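STRUCTURE:
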């Protein structure tokens, strides 16, 4: 059995956009939960700077043999510039992926 939950939240006042999804997949002897989040923050700036932004990647993997669980987390953070008709925008983003697997029977 598979369950899917999607969210799309926008805030014009705070210039924020959030997309998230959660997928729960249940098999015969396991449950896998996958969560994805995409967050964008937009800031209006006067002119484009020549700064190159680095993307930061954080990866974490955990395994618990007593609880029969495995977890995997991946986080990407960075920023880029976008050009509009009369102004420039600085867009910061954070993308995350979380996968959790639990074994039910051994």
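SEQUENCE:
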């Amino acid at each position: 059995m598979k369950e899917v939950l999607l969210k799309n939240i926008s805030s014009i006042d705070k210039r924020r956009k959030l997309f998230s999804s959660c997928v729960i997949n249940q098999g015969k002897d396991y449950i896998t939960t996958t969560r994805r989040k995409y967050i964008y923050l937009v800031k209006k700036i006067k002119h484009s700077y020549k700064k190159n932004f680095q993307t930061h990647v954080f990866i974490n993997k955990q395994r618990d043999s007593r609880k029969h669980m495995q977890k995997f987390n991946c986080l990407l953070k960075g920023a880029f510039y976008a050009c509009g008709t009369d102004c420039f925008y600085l867009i910061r983003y954070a993308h995350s992926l979380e996968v959790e697997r639990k074994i039910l029977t051994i």
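REMARK: The CA atoms of residues 29 and 104 lie 5 Å apart.
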